[in-house]
Amino acid sequence: MKTTRIMAAALLIVGGGWTLNVAEAQQPGIHRTDVLKDDLGTPGREAVQVRVDIERGVASIKHAHPGEEIAYVLEGSLEYRLEGRAPVILHAGEALFIPDGVAHVARNVGSGKASELATYIVDKGEPLVVPVK
Known about the structure:
Order of helices and strands: HHEEEEEEEEEE
Distance between the termini: 39 Å
CATH class: Mainly Beta
CATH superfamily: Jelly Rolls
Number of strands: 10
Number of domains: 1
Structural class: mainly beta
Oligomer: single chain
CATH topology: Jelly Rolls
């Protein structure tokens, strides 16, 4: 019975279709909600939207994406550190463009929960989140 449960869990993780990188998706203090995923008119590209809720003081891992990201802050204040640029703090109602492959970190610098709507225009079939050292 235990083997059956392990196999079922493995199938859910692997067969989850467009589930994010498991390490990123389960990062403590960060909750991701899949909103939309659809093919674009350009072959091999897709649009993906994810709501990301980040608890106070929590930062994402350093990561990149196989395409562009538009981060729109829904609630709170988030600091974005893009490789090669000065840090920027965005508040609710502000947005940031993150170019293809640019490593970055997002950190909640506000006094409560922060949320963003992340819209990705990415290569289809690639992992959405790619950890960077």
